[in-house]
Amino acid sequence: MINTNEPTGYVSYLDYKGKYTGIRAWIYSTDHKRIGLLYLYCITTFFSIGAIMGILMRIELLAPGPTIMGPQTYNGLFTVHGIIMIFLVVIPGLSVVFGNLFMPILIGARDVAFPRLNLFAWYVYIAGCCLAILSQVLRHGPPDTGWTFYAPYSLATGTNVIAATGAAFVLGFSSILTGLNFIVTIHRMRAPGMTFFRMPLFVWAIYATAWIQLLATPIIGITLLMLIMERLFNIGFFEPALGGDPVLFQHLFWIYSHPAVYIMILPAMGVISEIIPTFSQKSIYGYKAIAFSSLAIAGVGYLIWGHHMFTSGMSLVAIWSFSLFTFIVAIPSAVKVFSWVGTMYKGSIDLKPPMLYALSFIFLFMIGGFSGLVVGGLATDVQVHDTAFVVAHFHYIVFGGMGYAFFGAIHYWFPKIYGKMYKIRRANIAWAMTFIGFNFLYFPQFILGMQGMPRRYFDYLPQFQTGEVISSLGGFLFIAGFALMVYNLVMGFRKGEKAPANPWHGTTLEWQIPSPPPLENFEEIPVITTDPYNYK
Amino acid sequence: MEEKSLHTEEPRDDYAAKMGMWLFIFTEILLFAGLFLVYSVFRFKYPVLFHQGALELNVTIGSLNTVVLLISSMTVAMSLTAMQKNNKKLALTLLFITILCALIFLFNKYIEWGAKFNEGLYPGSELMLKLERGHLLFFSLYFFMTGLHALHIIIGMVILSIAFIKIRKGTLHIGKYMLLENGALYWHLVDLIWIFLFPLFYLIT
């Protein structure tokens, strides 16, 4: 295929000197790799802010009664934690960072289809971030509605709901532009010989995700616009006193926000499908099953939004069907897990940090998935609805899923991105700390929820204290592990040893070019003749 | 028809540009779909009051605007064809008529909204809040949906005006006219949405 030897005298995208210098060389750059890194730094920053907010909540919950803050501050904290983590970190997350960095390389292209639109989407993202920050600091105080903005409370509260929903609206626009760009790129820019079924599975996942971004995001856009108009002009759509219907808001909200869960998790599954064959040195088991299950999840994912609203008042037929489809969507997810395990079977497994994160993804995602069936079942959901159980389930899926895939992806592609290597041993220790911390942080919340601890409460009954304290201690351990991970990666970037072009012996296209990649990715566009996972 | 330049850094792909526009149009349709959903829910809930609301709208202006938009859709398509046949002057004239139609549409909208505002009927007004519930929702939806549509008219007008200027300057020509084609596509979308809005608000009496 391509010459894997390091060519001398190429200019990497990191060192490239163009028209601009300094920071302008980055914020004016339309290179997909530089845009990916811009997103990476933004998202890491916002994740850290969100995580600190989470830790503040865990400190508050160390003891019953006000510990370090009052109820209003706590309401603001969990709302802002949700808005930052969902709209600024997890939804763009893997797609904008690693989709931008590697999707074009993985299909053998020099860039995305619309490079300038790509940069524009980053600016829109930044505008959304600014609005989100504004919503915190403006006069009326941070929003206290929860990230779901349920009417009619979001219409009545005096806090900065308009700025926060405006932020979500703008971020949605950015998400649409990225999705549009990626779909066109995958359709039009594949290298010669790169048929759809020779695409790496990460690209399949990005493709399915892009379709959801495109087809679901406009609904949240218009819904939030209606909410803003309602606050400004009393148009009455969701206000019962004016003839409107608050449950209608919930429907419209979840028509987007449930598929959004798949915007978060599909690229994560794509990353895992890359890491596992590389570290098993074995071709992926059930390539087509994984590819099609991404599309199946994207499709069925549209039909299950009502499972967030089992207790909101819907007809029996409606909740019954939503529950049924919820159980059905578990099947393609299970197909993927089966294929990953099948890939590892009789492979030469190498437990390097990316693989450790991938394996913990499977473990955490399965706990999250099974507890999802508990909240997806009609009778059991009534018991655990709006309790800490839901918090635990959600974090196991989104944080244990998307978060761990993100950690895995950064450890997997780090040597390619920077051409340097981090310390493997330190990365392993950080992994162990975060993994143990994570389980101590969220598993007790399943039990607390079962026993009736509601979510979004700053106070609790004394009998819940043991569980809450264990959970908080887990949170501290996680944060320590996360700090070590970031330190390790930063030190790897600054002082790490030079990484070879293909440190993990991967077979996909990004490992066939030098590290860090040249500005134009490929000197000559490769001609693809084999499957992506072509292990001996 | 494509001119291939050997020196461009970014390879051009007109098919991709058009595909991107179609995808964007999907998202616009879905944006309005949310509003159509809300409309159908409330129309189902308050059928009588929605009929009464429709009686209070000016069908003459509504029909006039429909005709104006349909003509503009025709002229923009003809302008594109003229451009494809390298008739720059005709393309400019037809594009000018399109933009003129858009202005007429907005002017009519101004007359129509202005009359309602004079009666004290506008979102957030005291009169609005005193209306019966279904009535209020009808007018809220009317202002919201036609307002959002008018915003799209303005966006479309800006795109077509840029195309107009570029044709005059000669940077948009027979070898490179994607902006005009995508602008025309967008304009058809704006027209299409109006074709649904018009009967739903004016003709359901």
Describe what you observe in this structure.
Chain A is an all-alpha fold and 536 residues long. Helix content of chain A is 66%, strand content 1%. Chain A is built from 16 helices and two strands. In chain A, strands 1-2 form a two-stranded antiparallel ribbon. Residues 1-6 of chain A have low confidence and may be disordered. Chain B has 205 residues and is mostly helical. Chain B has one domain: Cytochrome c oxidase, subunit III, four-helix bundle (Four Helix Bundle (Hemerythrin (Met), subunit A)). In chain B, 80% of the residues lie in helices and 0% in strands. The A-B interface holds A 111, 113-115, 117, 176, 180-181, 183-184, 187-189, 214-215, 217-219, 221-223, 225-226, 229, 232-237, 242-245, 248, 252 and B 10, 13, 15-16, 19-20, 23-24, 26-28, 30-35, 37-38, 41-42, 45-46, 123-124, 128-129, 133-134, 136-137, 140, 143-144, 148.
Give the arrangement of secondary structure elements:
The complex is a heterodimer of chains A (536) and B (205).
Chain A: H1 24-27, H2 32-60, H3 71-90, H4 93-106, H5 115-137, H6 153-156, H7 161-188, H8 201-233, H9 246-280, H10 287-300, H11 316-344, H12 353-376, H13 378-384, H14 388-418, E1 420-421, H15 424-450, H16 465-495, E2 497-498
Antiparallel strand pairs in A: 1-2
Helix pairs in contact in A: 2-3, 2-4, 2-5, 2-16, 3-5, 4-7, 4-8, 4-9, 4-14, 5-7, 7-8, 8-9, 8-10, 9-10, 9-11, 9-12, 9-14, 10-11, 11-12, 12-14, 12-15, 14-15, 15-16
Chain B: H1 14-45, H2 47-55, H3 59-84, H4 88-118, H5 126-130, H6 133-169, H7 178-202
Helix pairs in contact in B: 1-6, 1-7, 2-6, 3-4, 3-7, 4-6, 6-7
